[in-house]
Each structure stands twice: as C-alpha cells, then as structure tokens.
Records
---
Amino acid sequence: MKLFSEFELSSVLKTNLAANGFVETTPIQAQAITPALSGRDLIATAQTGTGKTLAFLVPLIERLMREPKPGIRAVVLSPTRELAMQIHETFQKIAPGSGLRAAVVVGGVPEKIQLHALRKGASVVIATPGRLVDFMDRKLARLGTAEIVVLDESDRMLDMGFLPTIRRILGETPIIRQTLLFSATLENSVRPLIQKYLTDPVRIEMGPVTKVAENVDLRFYEVEPNEKMALLETLLKQEPGSTLVFARTKHGTERLAKHLNRAGYNAGRIHGDRTQGQRNAALKSFQHGEFRILVATDVASRGIHVDGIAHVVNYDLPQVAEDFVHRVGRTARAGAKGTASTFGSRSERGKVREIEKTLSIRLPRTERVAAAR
C-alpha cells in the first residue's frame, strides 16, 4: 500500500492528509498503520527521518474518531520538548474536523497554557514523561480513561533515565489498552518494557536501524581543533543550503554560533541552557530560512524534523556511535539527498574507527588542503 487514500480512513482524515501534501506513504507508514488501526500493540523501528510520527498519529486519530468519549483517551510520550511540540504541530494539521483536541504537557512552557488545554477537554496528551508525572502527582492529569499509549523515541527516553517515570505513567493507564512503541533503535534496555507492557505485539523493522541512509554523501576531514573553524567556513562557502552543525558542549555551541554570526552568517543555536522560548524561536527561524545555520548539541540529533536540511556537520564527534546515525539522519530525509561532513583530529582516529566498525560504514577521507582551497 503506497497511498494514504487506500487505507480505511474517514473522509475527514483523508482530506486533511491530502491538503497537507501527505499522499504517498513511507515504508514504515505503509506497514504500521493497518495493524495499528486494528488495535494491535506494535513495536516499530526504522531509521530516523522515515515518517514514524504519521505512522502512529493517523491510526490514533482514526480510532478515537470512530467512538467519541470524554476524558484523556491517548497519551503520546516523547523524550524532548521540541519533539513533543512537533508531534503536536503534525496533529494540528491532520486533526481538524475530527472533534479531537490535543494538549502539550512539557517543561519550559507556561503551565497555565497547558492546564487550559487540558481543561478544554483534550482527548490526546502529548508529553514529556517528567512533566506528565508532575501533573499526575498534583491531580491535574488523570489517565484512567486512556485507550492508547504511544512511546516515541523510546530508546532515547530510556537513555535519559525515564524508565521509572514511564512505568509510573503506564501503571496509571488501564491494563487493557493499545501500546505503540516507536524507536530509531531497539536496544536490550527496551526489552523489559516490551515484555511487561505490550501484548502480542506486531514487530516491524525497516532495515538496519543503525545504518546511515544510502542517499547521504558522507565525508571525513582530519583536522586539528584550532583549524576546525576555518574548515567550517570553507564548507559553508562551498555547500549551498541550510546547515545543521553539531557541537559537543553547550559552551562550544554558544562560542561557535557567536563566531559564525560575527563572520556574517545567520546562525541560531539550541542547547540545554537555552529557554524553551529561545529554542522554539531558533528552530522556527531555521525552518523558515531566517537562519541558514543552526548550531546544536545532541538535543537536536533525534526527533527534530526540519525539511530540506542540505548539510549536517559533525563539528565535534558524537559521544557514541549510534548518535552518529541520528545526527546524520537530519539530512536526506524522505528520499532527498544530503551531505554529512565529520571533523576529527589525529588523536581521535580510534574513535572514528569505532564509529566505522559499529555502523559498518567507511567515512571517505577528504584531503584537508582540497577542502580549504
């Protein structure tokens, strides 16, 4: 099945999908939507950028529309505020006319706005685990009527230490419910969650999940730390289009963005010390082309969906090999082509080899002199 119009969906949902340009399905959507529509539990893994958000939102909205009821009926858990807000943005595009409302429950956003959305009768809560439990503790959110729970980027949530929080949330939902687990990777740490909270799940895996997409042009530059800034400026002159630059630390992100702005580039920045308002503004400006460059820590390596990123630059190497896939996956999304350049010093050769071995890839070495001309 390659078209959304071929699924058994309401006319409202089909119209909204088509109006927003969602016509052809991605492979993960084609395989996940039918079992999810039937009410089956689901474990779905796929490379980042393959359309997992619609793969769970489409069946979620359709199922809730079929039998209107009061209360919170679906909970979507996300590891980060940015991803939660982008899920909500997609929901807002395809839910008009469905009679369903969604509330975003995350940290860093005025509580009053979130409470207002809940009290207006939200059927769907899109949340980060910590803030949702905080609302639960204060009796501001009750999950006893939830019929569907979605764990998005579940491996990332577990990496961030959310397992006890997720267990608490699932424990407050009915035993009989549908649970959809979506992830870019499926590590051993996720398995106890699957065994305890999912019933006879359908398993969908779209290719090796620790594999870089084939349409990404990988490049590696061996460069010493004091030469990286000059190389970055050279690449920015050579490579047109929007560029996402990954730095290791918050301080490094600040320093790099300020340098680029002084050099005449429009550069925004995202890291953990920025307020949610600042992070939202930077991401929106990058999405709309007001910033050509976004400099970020790994807070942006997963779940940030920005169309048309031409170039990803690993200014600093990622801490673990798997994060390389998530960083690089910000470009070449939905079948497009993209470039990913990685910087590493002579002393980091061992780390580069570890990335190559873990991911079964070869990072083509590009001559530093040729890059700087």
---
Amino acid sequence: MSPAEITLTARPFDGKADKTAVSTEAPVEVHVVHGSLNELSVRSADGTLVDGDREPTTGVWTPAHPLALASTYVVSARAQGADGHPVTKSLTVHTPQLPNAQVIHITYLGPGDGATVGVYQPIVVEFGAAVTDRAAALTQFTVSATPATRAAWRWVSDRRVDYRPEKPWKLGTTVKVSGDIDGVPLGGGVFGANAASTTFTVTSDVHAVVDPSSLTMRVYSGSKLLRTMPVGLGKPGFRTWGGAMVVLGKARTTRMTSCSTGLACDTKDPNYYDQLVDWTVQLTYSGTYTHAAPRDGLIGRANTSHGCIHLTTADATWFYSLAQAGDLVTVDYPTNTVSVGNGEGDWYLSWTQWTAD
C-alpha cells in the first residue's frame, strides 16, 4: 500500500511589493492522497496558534482574521497513510511588507486605557489615512459595555469614526474596545497595519448649559443644579460655537495665541493675543475653552472674548475641579453650531441623524 502524500499550497499575495509573499487572507489548500488528514495547524513565528477553519470538501483552510503584515507563519499537516504510517509536512510562508503608501494605522483610540469619563463620552477612532472600505474597517472593531448600552458607529470623516450611545452611558458603565486591522484589506490596495484596545469607566454625569440671552452657565450633576455662573462669550464676529460639546480635557494653564487658531499672527493686529490662561477646560479642537478671565470686567454683562467662555476666577476654578473628559457643555445658540469633528460634537446630532446613512 502507498504512503500518504500531502500537498500544501498558499495563495500568493496579489501585488507588486513582494512576489514571494502570500495573501493576508490567504487560504491554505491541503490535499492528501493515499491517506487521510489527521491534523492541520498554522502558527506564527512565536508559536502562537492561528485561529481558522478548514472546509473538508475543498481542503481549504481560511484564517478567522487576516494574517498580520510582514509576518512569518508555519503551516503543519499530519496525515495517516493507507499503509498505516503517519506522514507530516510543513510549509513556511510570509506575508508582505508593504510600503507606507499601502498601509493605514490606527493612530488614536480613545478615551485612553484606564480613563474615567463622563456619561457623554464617545469612542473615537482615528486612522493615519483615508479609509476607502469603511465596512471592512468597522468589522474589525468590537465594543463591550457593562451594562449593555444601545450605541452605533458613525463616520465623522474619511479618517475618523465615532461610537456614541443612543442615551448617555449609565454611571458605573465599563466599556471595552478593541480593533485589529492588521492585514485587513481596506480598499484600493491598502491594508491595515496595527491593532489597538482600551477600557474606560463612566464616573461623572456633569453637564452645563450656557444661555447667551442671560449670559449664564448652569451646571448640573444629573438633574441636580449645582451652580449658576455669569459668563462672557464671543464678541461680534467671534461668536462662540453653539451646540453640544463634549469636554476634551483640562489644564491648569494653557498658552493661547491668536496665531495658533489662524486668527492673527501680526502683533499689530487688534485681534492679536498671546497669553497664559488659567483653569482651562477644552471643548473644541479649534480652541474653544471655558477659562478664568480676570481681565474681563464685563462677565455676565457683555461678550468680549474671541469665542471662549469667560468665567470669573472663582467660578473657573470650581468648574475646572469638577469637569472631566466626557462631560458636556451646551451653548444655546441656534446658529453657528459646532461641527461633529471639531472636537467631539457627537451629541449635537439626534439619534436618528446619528444612525442615518
């Protein structure tokens, strides 16, 4: 009787980068004659077993997740021959190392691991380049919230996608996020190249409402009003953004310059400024903060800022000590509303708008 014969074939990578590489999705075909296959395994260079499934009728093994780029794998097969003797065979393959123009990295996944945040905190994922196949990217992310919370992803731009609950997270919720795009085709011959994960906890339910008509800011914890404070907003031509803005972070002191916001770089310009500002809570990427404004003697009576929310030093210190990332500040302007991507303006959209295609 004849001994078993094993044939192992891996699908080659369809690209010019490396003619000897195999596809990251590459099924491995396993065929046995004069015997039957007893065992098939695929392991990474460090010996880790790769998850996958073999279709018995075709002999094709497919990885559960695309193989990582620039990596080596060993395929091992063991068959029992018709002659009663075992036969083994192995095949070493490698995936392509692609040029920078053909890879996309997850450059940010937030909030950061171990963070404690407010109930309005969205999950934010940013990529190093535009993603063509958005569906392929999103299928590689998993979100687990305890307790379970209805939520959905929405693309904010071709490089950023956010995940927001329908209603604010419940206090005490723990959220775990993981995404692995390594080796995943993302359209146009471009592949994902890394993985990221984070776990955060919801510990604050602070939100503030700014009323431009009365120049006040009411600060709540849940439904309980904690404090009503006078404010100063943006003067004519520099109206403060309207809408719902998630707190991005805070700093004891922030250097604010008109040049950094593209407002004025000429020191002779009447709108030029370069100053250190205390007790700052950031609301937008474009430079909207709540902060102490001791030089503003018109707080609560008139608007004199370049778009920030001016507070007295006492009120700014108090709000700074209370606020944390994921809290919410809403400015009741019906126009000049903040864009979702200018910080984390996710809550400006209704749930119907958020989930619309």
---
Amino acid sequence: MLTRGQKVPPRRGSPVCPVTNGRRMSRQPHLSRHLAPYASRAEASLGRRYPEPEHSYRNCFDRDRDRVIHSRAFRRLEYKTQVFPNYEGDHFRTRLTHTIEVAQIARTVASTLGLNTTLAEAVALAHDLGHPPFGHAGEEALDEALMNHGGFEHNRHALRIVEELEERYASFRGLNLTYEVREGIVKHTTRYDRFRHSEINDYRPEEQPHLEAQIIDWVDEIAYNVHDIDDGVEARILQVDDLVAELPLFAEIYSEQARRFPDADERGRFNQTISRLLDTLVTDLIDTTQGNIRTGKIETLADVRRYPDRLVGHSEEVAESRNQIADLLMANLYRSPHVTAAMDEAQGVVTGLLQAYQEDPSRLPARHQKRFSVVGEVRAIADYVAGMTDRFALSESLRFESG
C-alpha cells in the first residue's frame, strides 16, 4: 500500500512522461472551457464517416490537423504554383507556404475571437489540397477537359482527396476527417454551385458554416492579397510608386513607416508596410466580426448556423481597400505579360498530359488504371494529373515529347 505523497511506480518498460509524471492524461485535451459559447467543440463533433476510438491525448480536431499535415497531398503543395512557379525563385510563395501563412493567420483570428484554434487550423491546412499543378491555370485546363464529365473545381477536388483519394490507412480510403473539417472544405466559398447536390447534401447547405470555417475565406484572401503584392514587387512586376499612387491604404501605411523609420532604405520601408498592411486587415476582420457577433446577439453555435448572413467580415471602409488591392493585382500582376505567358504555357502542359494519357491509358500507373471501372477513364486520368506537382507535370510532359 502506498503512503500519502508516495508516487505510483511506473509500469515496467513504460517510461514516465516528464510532463505528466506518470499521470493519465485526459481523453479530451484542450478542453472547451476557454472557448466562446458560439465556438465549435471537439466533444460535440458530429464525428467521422468511419467510427474510430478516441485518441488518448489528442482530440478529434488535433488528429484532423495532423492527418492533413502527414498526407501526401499536403506535401505536394511545396511544388505547386501560388502565382510564380516554384522554379522561378527561392523566395516566392508556393501553395504550401501560402497554406502555412493562412493557417497562422487563422489561428490568430480564431484565438482572439474565442474560437477553436485547432479546428480553424485544420480547415486552413486543408483548404488548398485540391489545387492542381500550376494553380488556377491548371484548374482551368482540367475544368475545360472535364466539361462533359462534371467539370473540375479545386474545393470539390479537396473534398474528394480527404474522402477518397488519399491512401494512407488500411481500414478506409481518404483521411476520415471529422464532419466539421469537411464542412469547412465544402463551405470554404459561398458558391456551392460547382458542387453536385449529392456532394453537399450531407453538409446542410441551407445553414451557415461554423465560425472557424467562415474565417478561412477571409484570412485566405488577406494572405494572398498582401503576399502577392510582396511577390509582385520581388518579381519587379509591381512598383512601389504605383502601389502608393493607386492604393490609398497602402500609401497611408507606407508614409507612416517612412516617418517612423527615416533611416531605413526603400526595401525596409516596403517590408514594414507589408507587415502593417497585413496587421491592419487582420485587426479590422477581428473587430468587425466581434461587432457582428454582438449586433446579431450570437450566443450559441446554433445561432451562428441559423443567422441569415455570415458573421465574419470586414468593415465597409476596409472592404473597399481590399477590393482596390484585388483589382490592382488582377490588372497589374495576374494579367501581366510575364504571368499570363507562364500560365498559358502551363495550361498547355496540363492539356497535353490529359490528351496523352487518354490516347494511351497504359501510361498511367496500374493502381490508377484500376479506378477506370469505378469513376471512369476520363475522371481517373484527371485525378492523376490534378495530383501532380509542377515539376512532375513538366517532367512527364518532356518524357512524352521525347517519345
């Protein structure tokens, strides 16, 4: 018998964790006592398609986040285009670094609003899994090729990746993520029209998504707007003087940094401006959303779901600035001769690969050929091409060209 204060000896062969000192950890770490009443809670999750026992020290959203990070689709994002292909420079964002930046901002916003940071992070990390090689150029090529076969849209494809295409577990296909993370993928955008009815019927399209999912649309846009400015200047396609002339918010922040750091060079002032621009957009998103929650008298998650509009958003003033940024990027960066030439070439690569595999399906790996009888030859080929990285797509294209 143990005396008071005496520690239980560890089981033979079982090392004692220095943090818990042998104590059994709770089955629900990160309990929801610190969450706002309208936040999503792991213990209230609607669960997975295939029931699994709970983990001893990770809750369901912890496991979802980790499953996304350990997936092949996530690793491939390193070599998928954001705006500039990976091979054009070491400092340009890739789809992976963009995803990490979105997840970081999502955690900040979720934490400040009292939301479930792990759920927000999991949705953020999964939100771009469905992007094909060469970003939107690859998506357009796939969508056109699949015009008579249901089309292609990266959010739809992300859902198929986590539900079907990832092959990591012996007992089920996909990642078997919780309902809440899958719902976040489906409702990453307000447009559900690219989803078939059967694909979204299980996700209550008539209801608003949880707030952790709602913030992803906005932090995604904040991340790519601000960081595409950064990359555009790095590529010498955008000029700081033009940004100052055409973007009042940028000009205001740039002038402030020039006053604060009079001895800094232009690069230093620009970097400070990018940092402050990001902070300004995120702060406004938090403040405006908090005001919307108060005005809407939101007290529970059920209130969030039945509210007529989404609660996350910017103030009118900052929304106007955000639209100005988006317009400038579209006109001066995304439609610049350098970017459009690269994307035209990329579309040609993706289209050529689809045609080559359709002309000779035996070129596909055997396990992908087996899917012909399940989803059809065209869709199976498209799934294979959509999973490629930029560099693998280019190497396959060169291989086919060389005979």
---
Amino acid sequence: MLTRIVIENFKSFDKQTELIMVSSSKIRTKPNHRIKVNSNTRLLKHAVVYGANASGKSNLVDFFDFFKLTLEDGLPVWGAKYFCRNDEMNEKRNSIFEIQMEINGKFYAYGFSAILADRCITGEWLYELYQNGSSKCIFEREKASKPLIDSSVILSKEEYNRFETYASDFEDNIADLFLTEMNHGKKILENSNLQVFKKVYNWLKFHIIIITPNSRITNFEYYYENDSLTLVNDLISTFDTGISNVSIEEIDLNDLSKMLPKRILDNIMEKIKKNLTEKRTFHISGRSDTSFFNIESNGNQEPKITTIKLKHGKSLYSFDFEDESDGTRRLFDLMDMLLTNENDIIYIVDELERSLHPKLTEHFLKLFSEKHMDCKIQLIFTTHEASIMDRELFRRDEIWFIEKDNENSSMIYPLDCFKERYDKKLSKAYLEGRYGAIPVFNSFKFRKEV
C-alpha cells in the first residue's frame, strides 16, 4: 500500500511537498477506511484532492505517471521542461521523486533525484523503514558513480560478486534507474536478499494504476466470462444510464474498419496476418473513445472479431458504444475499479467526476468502498465536486487541498490541519473559501459603447 509521496521541483511543485496516507489517531469515524498493517500503523484507503483549475491537481497525477515512465524506460527526453519553471534557478536544481510503500508488512522508501533539463539522474536510493522512525539503507547511488549496496544487506560471496558485476556494468549510466536494471534479466535466487529489488520494482510497476481523462484501462476479460459479464450488467443497471443489458456480438472486418482510423486498422491487420502465417494463437483487444473490439484466433483459424452491444429498456434494437453519452462511456472507463479482484492496488484518478452527475459520482464511490471494504485497495483522485466532501463518504484525514502560493507554486495540505467542529458542513465552508484551494477572480467591467 502507498504510505507517502515526496515531490520537489516538478511542474508546478517548487518546494518539497508531500501527501501522506497514514491515518490520524485522533479521528474515530469510518474505521473501515483504514487498513491495519502492524501494531502501530494504519493506512488510509482514500485521498480526495480538491483545488481550483490550474492549481496543480493534474500535476500530482503526472508525478505518478512520470515516476512510472522513468522506471520503465529511463528519463524521457520530453521531460526536460518538467522542472518548476517559476524560477530560472530550478533548471539546474534537483527534482526529487520519492514513493514510500508497504509491501507484505514491510515499509520501503524508493526514490531518485534528477536534473531534468540535462536528462541526468543525480541520485537514487532504496531504504527499509521501521516503526520507531529509523531506517536501513539497501542501496544508493550518486550521479554516474557505481551503485553501492549497504553493508547491512547480508549476501553470500557469490551474490555479492554478482551484484558488484551488475553495479560496475551500470556505472556512468545517468539516464536510467538501477532498480530497473536489476529487473532486466538479472539472475537472483528466490531466497536472496537481492529479491527486494524485484519486490519494490514489481509493486511500483504493476500495483499503481493511473487513470486520466484520456486513458482507457478496460480489462476485456470481464466481458468474455459469463459470471463477470453478469456482474457488469448488475452494476451498470444501478447507475440509471438507461442501459438494461451489455452483451458480446460478433462483427466482421468491414464493421471493424468503420470503428478505427486507417492507420490503427492497418497495424492490427498486419499483426493478424503475421500470427496466421506463424499459426499462432493470438488475442488482441482494443478500446477507443467510441468503441470496444476483441480479436482472437486459434492457430490458422479465421479470426473471430467481437464488440460490445448495449440494450436500452425494452427496445428491440442494440446500440453501439459510440451511441452512448460521455458520462456513460466514462462509467465504462471506471468499471474496472469495481470489478477487480486484485489486492494491494492503488488507483490514481484525475477528475474522477468528469462527465458524471454528482449523485452518480457519489454512487460510484459508495460502491467502490463497499466492494473493497476488506481489501488493500486505495484510491487517490482529484476533483472539483464539493458535494462529495461529506463525512458520510470520507474521513477528515482523507481530504486534501492543492493551492498555488504567491509565487505560483503548488502546495498540498490536508483538511485535518484545520481545527473545525465535527458538525460543520465541509462543502459549504470549502466553497466559502475557508480552506483555500478555490478560484479567486479579479474584477472586470465591460466598457459601455459611447
């Protein structure tokens, strides 16, 4: 589970700022919104982030995205302008990215620093954290020097020599992360203490799921298994969208060609031909703004192409996905979050309420909490929707704000830092400006024509 993030000199975040998922011991409401991970630590399952337009909410989501992209492919060239450009000094100042997490009862802090304008990683570290506030270094590196494993990490002579070889080969690499390198075909025994490199890497890569207004995360397996398709239908019927049934129907290549741009269709056809030539079993799924499609074939069999069709009420006609409203299509983007049976997942969602009615957003959040009540699943989302700022949905320590200061730099701070009565209506106080993080307008007068 996520415990804390640290951001510095990234996009609108200038000074070091953090978001913490450790619950407050003072708040007794909604105990099921916390997960106990040891005798002293309980982690929150939600973080709701409010802020005005251009306050930095999307940049918070971008932090996770940039972190994962760097982990997978090294510092991206296009990230050279992602330092905080409020001050020209920041171009040559370190940007800091750190994620702290709990994995199987142990706590770790992994992060890196970089001069983004130079595409240069200046530091990287991995620590194990303890309940008493102390920590143990596992490895660290500075700039182009060789990564060093801490002497406290117990390794056999063979393991130590192998690590030294990997570290020496990586020396002078300033664009990539050593944690990534240790997960590229490296031989590590199952019982080795070097397994921590795989454990932390896999958690960061596979357990953080980012959903932006433009992303598509649908797992098509749900729509091809009878039990889960039944669950899809049961869920969608509760949202009052008018949809009474979701089904799978077979279509032909001509239908598929109408769904997709020519460039994408040509690419898919090339893959189909290659797989058919090699007589391989294959499965291709895709999703656009307006369509679903699935292509599968066994060996040299003619491929089977399917899509989803939607029924409304008692109508005899089927509707295509493109016929639905933006709000309904948005629900399908988010449906995975209700269907998943995975554990220890954190969803990062930008503008969760986009195209959704406030009551529908509230309904979705209640279903999410109910479905994952006993699971180690977390949700961090940005929103403008003040109506869900309610103790019926979230604890006080689950609500956060982002606001820009006088120097146009973003700050993150929790609602819990305000000493409010427990009967105060939070949404009203927020819109009145009690907590900041709302738009501030300058006066303007139209000129009268003479």
